[in-house]
Amino acid sequence: MIDRQIDFYWKNRDELGRKYDGKFIVISEDLSIDQFPSVEEAYRFGEKTWGVGNFIIQECHKEPRVVTVPQYLKVVLG
Q: In the sheet that 24-28 helps form, which strands lie side by side, from edge to edge?
């Protein structure tokens, strides 16, 4: 599966961000890295080269990005 690629990304996130700032990277099963200017190009490459489910795509940045996800309260009335 892709657990190995995810672990690799998180352990090397800062270095990858500096090296591939503003790019999308494909991390394959053997932990090789390829860079692309768009997520579409990265996906096409990964699908063709490694097959769906055998790679991850990550957008890299020198500075960490913060994403805010709103919380919603679901009330179920019975």
A: 33-36, 24-28, 55-59
- Its pTM stands at 0.79
CA separation for the pair 14, 21 (Å, rounded): 10
Burial of residue 29 (number of CB atoms within 10 Å: 0-12, 13-18, 19+): middle
Q: CB-based burial of residue 59 (10 Å sphere; 0-12 exposed, 13-18 middle, 19+ buried)?
A: middle
Q: What is the DSSP letter of 38?
A: S
Question: How confident is the model over 6-23, as pLDDT tens digits?
Answer: 999 999 999 999 999 999
Which helix (H) or strand (E) is 35 found in, with range?
strand 33-36
Residue 13 amino acid letter? R
How many beta carbons lie within 10 A of that of residue 26, not counting itself? 23
